[in-house]
Design goal:
With about 120 residues, the chain is an all-alpha fold. It is built from four helices and no strands. α1 runs antiparallel to α2 and α1 runs parallel beside α4. The N and C termini lie far apart (about 40 Å).
Length: about 120
């Protein structure tokens, strides 16, 4: 499968491989280079989101709990956008994380960027 986020096209085998018992030898293939590239790109997007959402919350005058709610809503929205537009809701082709882990990944790091620009 072509990995659109990492722009890596792993070479596909010529045909199905069978072992001596005639059992199909298909196994899950996980390319670590593509995984690292995907993590770097999502990290950049999430970091920029923290900075941009901090600026938005500051300009809109959101303080206290309303600023925190703004950050959480924007963080989840950006992660869902990544999942929808880049991954076509097929998370397991790009990552071994659960849906909850993907949506809450880098939350603390992005919160620090958010607070810096808030």
């Amino acid at each position: 499968m072509i990995d659109p986020m990492a722009n890596i096209d792993p070479a596909a085998p010529a045909g199905p491989e069978m072992d001596s018992a005639g059992v199909d030898g298909n196994q899950e293939v996980f390319d670590m280079n593509a995984y690292r590239s995907n993590l770097r790109k999502t990290d950049k997007i999430r970091s920029f989101m923290g900075i941009a959402s901090g600026c938005v919350a500051g300009v809109c005058g959101l303080t206290g709990l309303s600023g925190l709610v703004c950050f959480l809503i924007l963080h989840i929205t950006v992660n869902l956008s990544l999942l929808a537009f880049k991954m076509k809701f097929d998370l397991h082709s790009y990552s071994r994380e659960s849906m909850f882990a993907f949506l809450t990944a880098d939350l603390q790091k992005c919160a620090m960027s958010f607070m810096l620009f808030w």
